[in-house]
């Protein structure tokens, strides 16, 4: 394993476009985005620790959302829970193989890039519906999202 650093790598950063309007989801998503961004630019020697931290984050993050979906009978919960399980299985598999030296940092970086590509779609398509559902069920209304930097027509 090399100590190669990736400072020129484009990294994922939190911005208002990721806001869904349900604070508990927005907070955990900000942490997710931050961890992905850190992994994208980390030195190879830092990847094992960051991937372990990210794995713990995903376990807690997905379990929280899964629990909410079950507790509130969120209608499309099965496909959402299945998607969480598939992502977590990939993260666990790559992490275990990387820890044993069975694959290199390049595979971890490939996983991280897939996560950076996957997350915005997942948040927009599945988590936005969950945020709306949770706001309605827990707060009695629809989520309100204020975004900075949008051009008005």
TrEMBL record:
Pfam families: Hemerythrin (PF01814). It comes from the Bacteria. Residues 23-129 form the Hemerythrin-like domain. Gene3D superfamilies: Hemerythrin-like. Keywords: Iron, Metal-binding, Oxygen transport, Transport. GO terms for molecular function: metal ion binding; oxygen carrier activity. Belongs to the hemerythrin family. NCBIfam families: hemeryth_dom. This is Hemerythrin. It comes from Malikia granosa.
